[in-house]
Fold this protein.
Amino acid sequence: MGLSPILSGMIQLKNLCLSSPIIQSPMAGCTDLAFRLVAREHGMEMAFLEMVSSEALVRGHQKTSNLMKSVEHDRPLGAQIVGCKPEVMGEAARRIEDMGFALLDINCGCPVPKITGPGGGSALLLEPDTTSRIFERVMNNIKRIPVTAKMRKGYVDESGDEAVRIAKIAEESGLAAVTVHGRTRAQGYSGKADWQAIRKVKEAVRIPVFGNGDVASGEDARRLLETTGCDGVMIGRGALGNPWIYRSILSAMAGKETPAKPSLEEVKKTALRHFELELEIEGEKIAVLKCRKILCWYFQGTPGAGEFRNQVNYTHTANQMRRLIEEFGKGTVPFNTP
Ligand SMILES: Cc1cc2nc3c(=O)[nH]c(=O)nc-3n(C[C@H](O)[C@H](O)[C@H](O)COP(=O)(O)O)c2cc1C
């Protein structure tokens, strides 16, 4: 028996029309170009670059340009800026729009001390006046694309009231939508995401709200939407090494049964594809280093994952990496490790 559909169809954010309200979150060090291309091959529609510092963007840092690498079929793509100075955030926003991104997001959630120390990321939750000025500057400089804000439910306060306050300012400033991650800054990435706090924000504003936190399957997405009444879902860590999550969520939303889990062969094929893309984009040295972490996501929870994790740290060449993936689950030792 099929389940009843919970949300169907498109969502319109200003001039950006998405065929489904499922968005991949920005994740520093994770949602790079290779990740996004694999995800798009598996049904992901809308994604973000990882966050970029507004200061570094305006100063034209090379490292920031590298983080913004994309290709024509990596669309629609949003960019997210982080910072605390209204004039710098406004200038960064103008440049993002000129670069052709489909959406601009303002980071009000990053918990890292390097970002919160000067007053950016989740520290904005405590500074409504500064946040309001940032939104105003950004909106003044953006002509066409939708602007959104992604926030945690609070800095230390558990109630969700800080997110409600910032979401209301976002609405008054003309932002197109907000995303709420149901954890406080104090929680980091641990503990359970509080979906009731997300609901509180949803009930306080009329602009679309995306719920975020602890969505690892189509069933989770379904429960989040039912619990919060949100207009869409933003997927985080649930997509790492799991590009099958997009189809699973789309099926759940359409009231269809969950698609079968991918076979080990399919997982290996996709992990190899991800590695080959990193290789093409980054070159051998960086691709191997990056994939020591990335490939573990694919095999997590599978028998042999522990041994894979040990061995992957001794890979230095593309061929070693390929052999390690190909031999996964066969009980063989692909190459000698110390
Ligand atoms: C390694 C890592 C990097 C992240 N980088 C960003 C970022 O650049 N911008 C952002 O808004 N959130 C970032 N996040 C937060 C996620 O987008 C998401 O809000 C969070 O992981 C909660 O969702 P989840 O429980 O489904 O993972 C990051 C999370 C992780 C684990």
